[in-house]
């Protein structure tokens, strides 16, 4: 379907961005009202500015970041990406659950991470950065 093609194109841009660590296209990939659901914060972060900040910082915190498997929902609007990374010498695995709109923009980005030690290391690193954003 059209939808799956649009999503696949957007995801291709996403992968190129991560691979090249070139976050300049991130803004066009995010919907204005995008929601980010963090593995550490209970409340989601809402809006392009804060989500842009979080994602550009997360990619700096993660070392050896690698995507593995990729799953699509039947409607073609949702994708789940499995990844692994290292933060402060702690190994972690996680998934990005990303929902796109029909225009190929990200409307919802939810991250799940294990193990606890990896998640805690990420929480410390990102906690310091989020404080800077709010300042």
What does this structure look like?
- This protein has helices at residues 2-20, 26-29, 48-61, 116-134; strands at 30-37, 45-46, 63-72, 78-87, 90-100, 106-114.
- The chain is α+β, with helices and mostly antiparallel strands and 135 residues long.
- Strands 2-1-6-5-4-3 form a six-stranded mixed beta sheet.
- The termini are far apart.
- The relative contact order is 0.19.
Specify the structural class.
Answer: alpha+beta
Number of strands: 6
Q: If you average the pLDDT, what whole number results?
A: 94
- Number of helical segments? 4
- Could you describe the largest sheet, including whether it forms a barrel? 6 strands, mixed
What fraction of the residues are assigned to beta strands by DSSP? 35-45%
Order of helices and strands: HHEEHEEEEH
Task: Determine the fraction of residues in helical runs and give it as a percent range.
Answer: 40-55%
Please tell me what the overall shape is: globular
